[in-house]
Amino acid sequence: MARGQQKIQSQQKNAKKQAGQKKKQGHDQKAAAKAALMYTCTVCRTQMPDPKTFKQHFESKHPKTPLPPELADVQA
Fold first, then answer.
1. 26: alpha, beta or left? (left if phi > 0; alpha if psi -120 to 50)
2. What is the mean pLDDT of residues 66-70?
3. Taking the mean position of all CA atoms in its chain, how far away is CA 26?
4. Measured between alpha carbons, how far is 43 from 38 in angstroms, rounded to an integer?
5. DSSP states of 23-42
6. Please, are residues 41 and 48 in contact by the beta-carbon 8 Å criterion?
7. Which candidate, 23, 52, 2, places its Cα nearest to that of 60?
8. Do residues 59 and 76 make contact, with C-beta atoms less than 8 angstroms apart?
9. In 3-state terms, what secondary structure has residue 62?
């Protein structure tokens, strides 16, 4: 009978340890992805990670709109 009680205690201890590790890890992929999107299109409010992608987006999606000044010197 002693082993049954030890088993229960061991399971409880392990569950508590696992929960602590999960909290400590705390990596949120959505937050990390959102933080990486630094450039926002002034026309459609789409967010992009870098100026090269931003320029490609702007040239393909908004060809009639003049290029913003921050994209003038970007090489696509």
1. left
2. 87
3. 13
4. 15
5. HHH---HHHHHHHH--EE-T
6. yes
7. 52
8. yes
9. coil
Location of structure tokens 């320029």: 55
Q: Residue 47 carries which side chain, given as an amino acid letter?
A: Q
Digit-coded pLDDT (tens) for 3-57: 888 999 999 999 999 888 777 666 677 777 787 888 899 899 999 998 999 999 9
Size (the chain), residues:
76
Residue with tokens 């992805």: 33
Dihedral sign, CA of 38, 41, 44, 48? negative
What is d(CA 13, CA 40) in angstroms, rounded to the nearest whole number? 48
pLDDT at residue 27, rounded to an integer: 67
Using alpha carbons, list the distances in angstroms from residue 65 to 31, 38, 54, 55. Answer: 31, 21, 14, 12
| Domains in the chain: boundaries | 33-76
**CA 53/CA 37 separation, integer angstroms:** 11
Task: Compute CA 27 distance to the chain's CA centroid, rounded to the nearest angstrom.
Answer: 9
